[in-house]
Amino acid sequence: MTSSGLIAGTPMYMAPEQARGEVLDHRADLFSLGSVFYQMVSGRPPFRAASTVAVLKRVCDDTPRPLQDVIPETPDWLCTIIDRLLEKKPADRFQTAKEVADLLARCHSELKLNGKVASIGGRENRQTLEMQRVRNGVRNASTAIDSSTGKGFGSIRLRENSKGLRY
After folding, report:
1. Does residue 28 contact residue 89 with C-beta atoms inside 8 Å?
2. What's the pLDDT at 158?
3. Residue limits of CATH 1.10.510.10 in the chain
4. CB atoms < 10 A from the CB of 36, how many?
5. Cβ contacts of residue 130 below 8 Å, gap of 6+?
6. Average per-residue pLDDT in the chain?
7. Which residue has the higher pLDDT, 123 or 91?
8. Burial (0-12, 13-18, 19+ Cβ within 10 Å), 59
9. Residue 118 — pLDDT band, cuts 50, 70, 90?
10. Reported confidence tier of residue 5, pLDDT bands at 50, 70, 90
């Protein structure tokens, strides 16, 4: 948002930090690139809603529907790249456009040579990331309780449920 309260940019492609009016760097453009890639693959933007404010809220708070739920034949490696581009925190995204371009070039070469892309490495799948978020949320809640009351849960055990998520 500008200082006059106007929105500068297309809300469906804005990075969360831009939607919140925070200071931006080049990684906001990488989020937008992820939004464009998501739409190219699925035929729809990753964040849709009836009003601009609702779209901005979804950009900040929601995770897009998994691409393979929309287009089941989307390759895992492409989903992983797009998911990483759409990470809410800039530090969790690719850090440079060159990093993305080099990875896409490598994937293209592998497809031409082998007809498939080996693991792109360096990044967990969405389910693993979700398990980490659950773990971090439990730890943060425990720390908050410890800090505010001096009492906590002690040791919290995390177990996997049938979907692989831990609690």
Report:
1. no
2. 44
3. 11-121
4. 15
5. 165
6. 80
7. 91
8. buried
9. confident
10. low
Asked if residue 28 lies in contact with residue 76, where contact means CB atoms within 8 angstroms, the answer is no
Tokens of 121: 């490495």
CA distance 38 to 66: 10
| Cβ-count burial 78-116 (b if 16+ within 10 Å, e if not) | bbbbbbbbbbeebeebbeeeeebeebeeebeeeeeeeee
Asked which of 58-67, 74-83, 101-110, 122-131 is least confident by mean pLDDT, the reply is 122-131
Other Cβ atoms closer than 10 A to 27 = 21
pTM for the structure as a whole:
0.69
Read off the tokens for 96.
Answer: 């440079």
Q: Tell me, which fold does domain 11-121 have in CATH?
A: Transferase(Phosphotransferase); domain 1 (1.10.510)
Contacts 24+ apart (CB under 8 A), 50-57: 52/7, 52/11, 55/11, 55/12, 56/7, 56/11, 56/14, 56/19
Residues in the chain: 167
Look up residue 79 and give its amino acid. Answer: C
